[in-house]
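BACKBONE GEOMETRY TOKENS
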Amino acid sequence: MELPDLDPILSFIIAAHTAKSSTLVVGVTGGVAVGKSTFSDDLARLLNLETGLTVVVVASDGFLHRNSVLEEMGISDRKGFPESYDARAIEQFLTDVRSGSPTFVPVYDHHTYDITDTVIELLPADMVLFEGVNALQFAEHLDIGLYLHADEPVMRAWFVERTRGLREAARSEYSPFFDPWLDVPDDVFLAMVNGAWEMVNLPNLVDHIEPTQTLAHAVIEWEADHGIRVITFRESL
């Protein structure tokens, strides 16, 4: 099967930018491990090559509450759910971005699984790709919404693969999150990873992420080999 490329998405975004005089903000969302970060980085690179415009990727992970705050709130086991993010800070960030004002972005460290003390200054850009599981929950602050879809068993397999990779990386680069799991038997580790999917990622997908698909201007469906099955534009938006 010949898979479609991203040309329709590029053309759609470029046309939207041409019609707008200020920063274009594109939201990219989908379930955990569906490939939001990689897709956003690739899309930013292609947009830059096609137009020469400045395109910046910002992850919503930086707006998670710190682990200590989540613990105080009693929602440590709901990390990634809407209430685990600082929604007010996200709204202010997107407002500043769309107005062309410089702003600062908190940094999330995937080795420690927590917010760092580092912030990055984001200067005005031509386009900003805001990616994360909750991106389209802020659709009123976005110009374009993109939803990445894969079948649930495929996403689960990608999540397991990614988590295994992070544990292996922790053998050479210390990670306080994965260190306790380094010597755990593989079957026990696999059970833990699948349990995390069942108890956290799957409910979040069904209850909070998938419902935002109706807010997307385009839905990009992935095959298990990471190829694109189809791109569907929603004409009604």
Q: What stands out?
A: The mean pLDDT is 94. The radius of gyration is 18 Å. Residues 7-233 form a domain with the Rossmann fold fold (CATH 3.40.50.300). The beta strands are 24-30, 55-59, 103-109, 114-122, 127-131, 144-149, 218-222, 228-233.
